[in-house]
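> call design_seq(struct)
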C-alpha cells in the first residue's frame, strides 16, 4: 500500500517543485532490491532509517487485528485493482504516515498518521499546506 501512496505523492512533484518544496521518503528497512522497487514508484529522495528514529519514540503497529478490519481489505482491494502489487518481505506491521514540514522553525505543518493500512493522506491537503509555507 505504501507504493500506491508513493506514486500519488510523486504525481505532485512538479507542483511541489514550483513551490520549492522537496519530496522525501523515509523507509524503515532495505531488504534485497526492495528499495530499488520502491524508488520506481517514488520520484523524490529516499532515506533508510534502520534505527527507526523518524518513526517516533513509540512505533505504531497494526497486528493481526488488521485481518478483521473491513477498511484494510477495501484498501488492499483498491490498491490491487490499480495495479499495485505488494509482497510479504520484511517487517510489514508498522504504520506509516505523511508529514509536510516547513523550513526553519515552522515545524510540522501537516501530519497524517495511518490509522490502518492504506489510510492515505489527502493530496489536496498536502498541496494546500505546501502553498501556505513561508
Amino acid at each position: 500500500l505504501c507504493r500506491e501512496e508513493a506514486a500519488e505523492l510523486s504525481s505532485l512533484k512538479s507542483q511541489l517543485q514550483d513551490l520549492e518544496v522537496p519530496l522525501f521518503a523515509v523507509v524503515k528497512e532495505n531488504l534485497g532490491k526492495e528499495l530499488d522497487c520502491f524508488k520506481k514508484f517514488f520520484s523524490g529522495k529516499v532515506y533508510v532509517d534502520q534505527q527507526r528514529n523518524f518513526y517516533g519514540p513509540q512505533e505504531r503497529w497494526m497486528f493481526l487485528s488488521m485481518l478483521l478490519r473491513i477498511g484494510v481489505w477495501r484498501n488492499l482491494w483498491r490498491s490491487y485493482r490499480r495495479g499495485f502489487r505488494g509482497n510479504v518481505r520484511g517487517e510489514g506491521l508498522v504504520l506509516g504516515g505523511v508529514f509536510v514540514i516547513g523550513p526553519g522553525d515552522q515545524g510540522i505543518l501537516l501530519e497524517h498518521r495511518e490509522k490502518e493500512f492504506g489510510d492515505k493522506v489527502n493530496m489536496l491537503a498536502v498541496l494546500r499546506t505546501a502553498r501556505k509555507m513561508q
